[in-house]
Design goal:
The structure holds two protein chains of two kinds.
Chain A: E1 5-6, H1 17-27, H2 39-42, H3 44-59, E2 67-70, H4 73-87, E3 93-97, H5 102-113, E4 117-121, H6 131-137, E5 142-146, H7 160-170, E6 173-177, E7 196-200, E8 211-215, H8 230-233, H9 241-256, H10 258-279, E9 283-285, E10 296-301, H11 306-315, E11 318-319, E12 321-322, H12 335-339, H13 344-347, E13 350-354, H14 361-381
Parallel strand pairs in A: 1-11, 3-4, 3-5, 5-6, 6-7
Antiparallel strand pairs in A: 2-8, 7-8, 9-10, 10-13, 12-13
Helix pairs in contact in A: 1-9, 3-9, 4-5, 10-14, 11-14
Chain B: H1 6-13, E1 26-32, E2 37-45, E3 52-60, H2 63-76, H3 81-84, H4 89-95, H5 104-121, H6 126-131, E4 136-138, E5 143-144, H7 145-155, H8 160-167, H9 177-196, H10 208-229, E6 232-240, E7 243-250, H11 258-273, E8 279-282
Helix pairs in contact in B: 1-2, 2-5, 4-5, 5-8, 7-9, 10-11
Classes of the chains: A alpha/beta, B alpha+beta.
């Protein structure tokens, strides 16, 4: 098989052909700067606003002006947290979880070194939060609660609605990193009282280098990138026009394919998972089986190491990812799986498959067929049995 | 992404000598599942000639760990025990056409398994013999000072990052990084004096005022930023001649290793930058 079977869609996704076509003119003839006075540039504002409307549509936001375009999910996360700290300078406490993406965790670690107090909430064996722990962590000093919508490694979805309501009643700004959730599950922000929400274009078939931050009307905001008057003075820097336009189209497509995501992709994921668990002994699914994104499956294979599994799958044209130490870019394995208390023997051999609308049943069958001999071979080499 | 040599890829895909030798004359077990790699080496040795007739391995680990193990077994087959004892991690890496820097610890694991097997053959309980003289520096990966110094020496390592690449030490929580830095400094300053014999010229004597301001400056520049990376901090309480009193703050409070931090980090830094005579003590409320 020459074709690559791409099952790493939580890392990044294929740019939808429709998105690419929509972007093309802005990388060729329509190169004007939307801030320009002349028509050639200035007219492009309309395209950006159309994209903003599409995004608001996907999120179920009441007003497109609640959307600020950024360069990526990380910028959105940084903007949200730093904004809350700037508008509430007397408050020095942040609540987040131990399983956040580095975009939030690394910033929080930095803020700790700068004298802020950070509470990192635990998760249980299934990757779920204890809302009582959250409740008891909020105090007079808490400036912001930042909790992800869905976990990138396990796909576990947090009870964001309850958290948002809790934050609202306690008068604390609530931010959710929804980078993995937007485009995969339906949103209705008019009914979900989050104050700030981050998303990233390249996770939903738009290009890399574009993201957005939703800022609910009435939420006090302080910009992160200081510069020109773009985005109504909320984010300086010339707009990434082509990518912003592409993101708008990607949002329209995501809305259209939402049912596909919920039904067909979920079915494919469940088929893959069931077959793997049936065919391969000493394997387990990491994370809550129900409260999960429909596209993500994180499976631990005991006694073997993830990088070796990935490399063998790579040979067979299958692209996935792992939480093992060797693949994490450091020497320690996934902080998410370790926080969940998954035994080390499973963490090191954990593989994440994450699907998208471009995956077919044929591809899933190929993975199902290819995986058992890989696992068997590596277990033959391993001293653990 | 994978930046492996063709040889590593080839041996990963088709490893040689996988398994266990029946009734082995020597067994070398190193690593564990928490560290992320482990290797069990079994050898058949001709008692008369002391030649290694058969060598097999079982490895838990990434592609380079499996390839290193395979390489090791190929290399030592036919060698006498004495010859095999001279095989180093460098030899293994060379056989593989090189390893990425951050994977060098895989070749070190091969060398260690071989050493353990040879010790096992000779009836020397390797681990127990060493325990008395060694100290665990990196608690995350159980790496001793002896192993670190050896890696520094044999591979000409100059930075903490390099030490981590070769031994894993410092690659977990990172708390031992100042200590690794100290080992590096000690080793290389010893090496420097070995050759040249040139003693450092005595430092200019400081006035009280100069000493106080230098202590403050050193704490601000060298000590506090490092402690802060672990969420800790200190406050300078008083300076009396060469006696410095500090108070621990933040995460340092209640940290069981403040004693070590006080002497091997704070005091060492002040001795280095201010005055050899300096002693530091902790003040508690």
């Amino acid at each position: 098989m020459n074709k690559i079977i791409y099952a790493d869609n939580n890392a990044t996704t294929r740019v939808a052909p429709e998105v690419f076509e929509a972007m093309r003119p802005f990388l060729t003839e329509e190169y004007g700067n939307p801030s320009s006075m002349h028509t050639f540039g200035g007219k492009i504002i309309k395209d950006i606003e159309r994209s903003r409307e599409a995004l608001a549509g996907l999120l179920g936001a009441s007003d497109p002006q609640e959307i600020i375009f950024t360069s990526c999910g990380t910028e959105s996360d940084n903007t949200a947290i730093m904004s809350a700290l700037r508008v509430l300078p007397q408050k020095r406490h942040i609540i987040t979880t131990k399983v956040e993406h580095p975009a939030v965790l690394t910033l929080c670690k930095y803020l700790e070194s700068a004298g802020y107090r950070v509470t990192y909430l635990n998760v249980d064996n299934a990757g779920m939060l204890d809302l009582e722990e959250l409740k008891s962590s909020i105090d007079q000093d808490t400036a912001i609660i930042s909790i992800m919508y869905a976990n990138n490694e396990t796909g576990v979805v947090f009870p964001v609605e309850e958290i948002a309501e809790l934050a609202r009643t306690r008068g604390v700004i609530f931010h959710t990193d929804a980078v993995q959730a937007v485009g995969k599950i339906p949103f209705k922000l008019t009914e979900l009282p989050v104050d700030l929400l981050s998303l990233s274009g390249h996770k939903l078939h738009a290009a890399k280098g574009v993201g957005a931050l939703y800022v609910r009307k009435g939420t006090r905001f302080s910009p992160f990138m200081l510069g020109g008057h773009q985005e109504q003075n909320r984010r300086g820097g010339t707009e990434n026009v082509a990518s912003i336009v592409g993101l708008g189209v990607a949002c329209e497509l995501a809305k259209k394919f939402m049912e596909d995501e919920q039904v067909r992709i979920r079915k494919l994921r469940d088929k893959l998972e069931a077959a793997v668990l049936k065919n391969i002994p000493h394997a387990r699914v990491n994370g809550h089986r129900q409260r999960r994104l429909p596209n993500t499956s994180n499976i631990g294979f005991e006694f073997i190491e993830g990088e070796a599994i990935l490399l063998m799958l790579d040979e067979k044209g299958i692209a996935a990812s792992s939480g093992s130490a060797c693949t994490s870019g450091s020497l320690t394995p996934s902080h998410v799986l370790r926080t969940m208390g998954i035994p080390f023997s499973f963490v090191q051999g954990s593989i994440r498959f994450s699907l998208s609308r471009y995956n077919t049943e044929e591809e899933i069958d190929y993975i199902i067929k290819s995986l058992p001999p890989v696992i068997k071979r590596l277990r033959e080499i391993s001293p653990y049995k | 992404m994978w930046f492996y040599s063709d040889k590593v890829k080839k041996l990963f895909k088709n490893p040689q000598n996988v398994g266990e030798v029946k009734n082995p004359d020597a067994v070398g077990d190193v690593g564990n599942i928490i560290c992320g790699d482990a290797l069990r080496l079994t050898l058949k040795i001709d008692k008369k000639t002391e030649k290694i007739i058969e060598a097999k391995f079982q490895t838990f680990g990434c592609a380079s760990a499996i390839a290193s193990s395979s390489a090791l077994t190929e290399m030592i087959k036919g060698m006498t025990i004495d010859e095999a004892a001279n095989v180093t991690n460098k030899d293994i890496a060379e056989y593989l056409g090189g390893l990425p820097e951050e994977k060098m610890h895989c070749s070190v694991m091969g060398m260690e398994a071989l050493e353990a097997a040879i010790a096992n053959y000779r009836g020397a309980p390797l681990k127990q013999e060493m325990v008395g003289q060694e100290r665990i520096v990196c608690k995350c990966f159980s790496v001793t000072d002896k192993k670190i110094i050896r890696a520094i020496k044999e591979n000409n390592l100059k930075t903490v990052e390099e030490v981590t690449n070769y031994t894993k030490a410092g690659g977990g929580c990172g708390k031992c990084q100042p200590e690794i830095e100290k080992l590096l400094k000690e080793f290389w300053s010893k090496e420097a004096t070995k050759g040249a014999c040139a003693k450092e010229p005595p430092r200019k004597k400081l006035t009280n005022l100069q000493r106080i301001s230098l202590i403050q400056e050193t704490i601000g520049r060298e000590i506090r930023p490092q402690l802060k990376t672990d969420g800790g901090d200190i406050e300078l309480v008083d300076i009396d001649g060469t006696k410095v009193s500090v108070k621990f703050l933040g995460m340092c409070l209640g940290c069981p290793s403040t004693g070590v931090t006080l002497k091997s980090f704070i005091e060492a830094k002040l001795k280095e930058f201010v005055d050899e005579e300096i002693t530091v003590e902790e003040v508690r409320e």
